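Sanity check

After download, print the first record. It should look like this:
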Amino acid sequence: IMGRKSVRKYLPKPVEKEKIEVLLKAGMAAPSGKDVRPWELIVIDDREVLDSMAAVLPYAKMLKEAPMAIVVCGDTTKSSYWYLDCSAAAQNILLAAEAQGLGAVWTAAYPYEDRIRVVRKYTELPGNIVPLCVIPFGYPATAQEPKQKFDEKKIHYDKF
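Expected structure tokens:
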């Protein structure tokens, strides 16, 4: 967990099917309120789609280099707090990527309508399915150290 980092540069090397399956299983192992599991996961490996989304998503330019991406989506008919459950699924995917020697980064779609429209265009999502984030992933092109984010000042016992 402490080794996880946001990786934005990838080697031009395909990711093995077995590793992709681990990412998907990890995402679906996330907790969800009332166990409704509102997530839908879209695996994108189509170079044209990745490049097209990279061209228009403002913070997902690394899709141009990434061999793949997983779009974490939520079904709004299953839960009004789908985005919370899907955030846990996305975090699990990021941790599983790190554990397998892959690099990944969370790029937000929700709650930005313009980004949601772009993802909808390239994934043909039905109206009740909303993209939370696009997670580009692959083998890291460079070695990277994780940021040290621990901050004792943010810890409070009993009272603020």
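If your output differs, re-run the checksum step. Summary of this record's structure: The helical segments are 17-28, 47-56, 82-99, 113-123.
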